[in-house]
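Subject: for your reference before the review

Hello V.,

The reviewers asked for a structural picture of the protein, and I figured it would be easier to keep everything in one thread rather than splitting it across files. Below is the amino acid sequence we used in the manuscript, unchanged from the supplementary table.
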Amino acid sequence: MLAAVLLSPFALTAVTGGGIDWERASAIGQTYGAASAILSAIALIGVGASIVLQARATNQARTQAVRQMHTDLIRMALDDPAYLPCWGMGPRTVGLDERQAGYINLILSHWQARWDLGLLDARILRVLVDDLFRAEAPRLYWAEFGATRVDTTHRARRSMLQIVDEQYRKAVTAGPPERPAAVAAPDATVPARRYDTGAVVVAGGLVALGAIAVGIGLRRRPAGRPARR
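And here is what came back from the structure prediction:
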């Protein structure tokens, strides 16, 4: 486009036959007014499209930040089960462990994020969900929290969860799960921190010896020599 602008005087000279007839050149230039208007409209559409894409990217970044915070909170509760009761009553279904429920929640959130980014289609999702519902724990989770999760999800993202619900109903109709839920023992929690008594004694002895050495060094300093600051 820059080359066309720079070469336009020479093109007008060729059209007018040697000398430039400015009135004729003006008439010729006005014939390109429609093309100029079309190019300006295309440029304006491009600017508007870039603004829309930037707004979508910002919204996706904010959504991802919120999901990452949710994931971090659940991971904290999984690392230390003492935080699990902070989420509320927890699963009321017999046989569903709170840690299993939290982990299944992370799996579904991961699939939802891939679905939103277009990295997961319906065919692959059905395969993943079919394998998920072969186990009893995911079935117990979806039986208690599935309907609530579908109802509280944004309408545009509800299609993914509807597929999960369809596959759940098919799995229940097909028969009992292949992998029963194995609830962890109540005392299978994160062990409390234990301190090695011998290590504590050794560390205390080293600190004491260091303090004694510093005291001896201060006493041996000559009285007439000022201490360095």
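For the response letter, the relevant points are probably these. Confidence is low (pLDDT under 50) at residues 187-197, 223-229. The helical segments are 2-16, 22-30, 33-79, 98-116, 122-132, 136-152, 158-174, 197-219.

Happy to draft the paragraph if you're swamped.

O.
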